[in-house]
Design goal:
419 residues, alpha+beta, 6-stranded mixed β-sheet, 5-stranded mixed β-sheet, 15 helices, 45% helix, globular
């Protein structure tokens, strides 16, 4: 039994032992990431296909395809599929992003076989009923309308258009008109010709050889495509824009620019620097804009990575009448951090925060699988995590200022104020 009167053992994060994983190539040439863990009889399976919005001709087709996979099979209605998974104590999710379509299955080892049988049925004999299709279109259209009525959501949509261009997949947004123009025939065609493009498989938890064989059998029944990734040019508008919206007491601010991707040698230093700028409660922007000036309840800075681009951004909801002042203060905070090194104590506080956050991201087998899957999908080796920990332990205050100077202050910047 744990003796809570004793202080837990403390050790340097440099000694942290990462959980082992392995990547294997299945007989159908599908790459598979395996993160084993049999402490609990839980299983996680994720099928990732390179078939997001990036690959569609009609906006919304990829999204509707993902939705319709749970709309029923030749032998089961949507309700029967849902009840079947609930009866087994399993859970299935299907998500579609700009880059990928993802199917996630959570289940117990005891019911993995039956859950996989249901998954096979969804993938091999979906029925695409017209009634379910119309219901999903209606729900999505109503959701879009409610989201667009909110300043923060609308500001993010408009900011992406400015950052990438309104014809780029990352700059386009799914609107009501696009959803209404989607047809069942286009959705079925997308599934039959593009959905199972370049699959990758992720397995976590108590997965053995028997389960591997069953998963392999399912993949063997799929028609796997190898479509080339379409190319789109960026059309960034690096200026400040003001959009007058509905009368509101708040303004939405978005500020950022295209930056280096995960494979760049400076990416870990830049991530750490942006965290100090605005990535946690003790960051420069939180202190300046919230605590000292009282212009917002929260402000956040981050590096975001998509499959084909990366960008840094600052976002906040501000007092409408103080929005211009807030923007000037943000630029001032960036300039201050770029030209004056943070103190050693501030840097050490940041490093300790990030060490704790990293450890918190590796608590359970599902957490670990999530971290490793991000590396796997983006073709990054496990050394990426080791390099991050090494950078976290060795980064100096000077490095932080240099990163802000090089990649934030001196880079082209797009800003949007939604009033």
């Amino acid at each position: 039994m744990l003796d809570r009167t004793l202080i837990p053992h403390a050790y340097s994060l440099s000694d942290f032992q990462l959980r082992t994983s392995k990547i294997v190539r299945l007989e159908n040439q599908v790459d598979c990431l395996i993160v084993s863990g049999d402490l609990h009889p839980i299983c996680f399976i994720e099928l990732i296909f390179k078939s997001g919005g990036w690959f569609e001709h009609q906006a919304g087709t990829a999204y509707m395809t993902g939705k319709m996979l749970l709309g029923g099979t030749l032998n089961k209605t949507a309700e029967e599929v849902s009840v079947a998974y609930e009866t087994l104590g399993s859970h299935i999710e299907i998500h579609t992003s700009v880059d990928y379509s993802s199917i996630k299955l959570y289940t117990t080892k005891k019911h993995l076989g039956q859950s996989l049988n249901l998954l096979e049925e969804l993938l091999c004999s979906p029925s695409f009923p017209l009634e379910e299709f119309n219901i999903n279109k209606s729900i999505k259209a109503q959701l879009i309308k409610s989201q667009l009525a909110k300043n923060p959501y609308f500001a993010s949509i408009e900011f992406n258009k400015l950052l990438f261009g309104n014809v780029h997949p990352y700059g386009k947004s799914l609107d009501v008109f696009a959803i209404e123009q989607c047809t069942l025939d286009e959705t079925v065609n997308f599934f039959n010709t593009k959905f199972t493009n370049e699959p990758k498989l992720i397995l976590g938890g108590a997965i053995g050889n028997k389960e591997m064989d069953q998963i392999n059998q399912i993949l063997n029944k799929l028609t796997i495509f190898q479509h080339a990734t379409p190319q789109f040019a960026l059309n960034t508008n690096s200026q400040h824009h003001v959009i007058e919206g509905q009368a509101s007491t708040q303004a939405s601010l978005r500020l950022g620019g295209i930056t280096i991707n995960r494979s760049h040698s400076d990416i870990h230093k830049l991530n750490i620097a942006v965290k100090l700028l605005g990535g946690f409660f003790g960051s420069r922007l939180m202190k300046k804009i919230r605590e000292e000036k009282g212009l917002t309840y929260g402000i956040h800075a981050a590096i975001s990575h998509a499959g084909n681009s990366s960008y840094w951004s600052i976002s906040s909801e501000l007092k409408r009448e103080k929005s211009a002042e807030a923007l000037n203060e943000i630029h001032g905070a960036i300039n201050e951090l770029a030209h004056n090194y943070p103190s050693n104590s501030e840097t050490e506080m940041l490093k300790n925060f990030l060490r704790g956050k990293f450890l918190g991201s590796m608590n359970t087998i599902l957490d670990v699988t999530s971290v490793y899957s991000s590396l796997f999908i983006n073709n990054l080796a496990e050394d990426f995590l080791k390099d991050y920990l090494n950078t976290l332990n060795t980064i100096q205050s000077r490095d932080i200022s240099e990163m802000i100077q090089k990649y934030v202050l001196s880079a082209p910047t797009t800003s949007l104020m939604m009033l």
